[in-house]
Amino acid sequence: MLLKSMMAGLAVAVVAAGTAAAAECVLPADAQPGKAVSAQCKSCHIFEADKPSRPTGPNLHDVFGRKAGTRADFPKYSEGMQGASAKGLVWTDDKIIEYLADPKAFLAKVNGADVKHAMFFQLKDEQKRKDMVAFLKAIKDKPECN
Asked: In the chain, which end has fewer C-beta atoms inside a 10 angstrom radius, N or C?
């Protein structure tokens, strides 16, 4: 009987430890609207730390603060993104906000010429662009935020 009680106690302890280890993603209030905005991007991109990029676009989970065009598992960066990477573009608040407004115009400005680029989606609403940045910042380096 004592052994049975000990085993039951051990099972409860193991389950509790596993639950505590599996951290839950809690987004700050300013990042929550950005999660909804990110749904518009999911046909081409993914936002999950433990998943590879899609064939249509790189995984954006840790894009904030990263040099443009450097995700190793996405080999199909456009000419425009490769040029921006060569120029040392790093994804900051302002750069992401400007890029999302008009990716083609942004990359032409960065590269100093009109360049080929595959992303034609434009997020015209400035608040939604800010929400998206808040979301990207909030999930950066947090694998539990998938």
From this structure: N
- The CATH number of 33-139 is 1.10.760.10
The single-letter code of the amino acid at 77 is Y
| Amino acid (1-letter code) at residue 132 | M
Q: Both tokens of residue 90?
A: 């790093």
Among 74, 127, 86, 124, residue whose Cα is nearest residue 103: 124
| Distance between start and end Cα atoms, the chain | 43
Do 25 and 145 form a contact (C-beta atoms < 8 A)? yes
Name the H helices within the chain: 2-21, 32-38, 79-86, 93-101, 103-111, 126-139
Ramachandran angles phi, psi of 40, nearest 5°: -70, -20
pTM of the model: 0.82
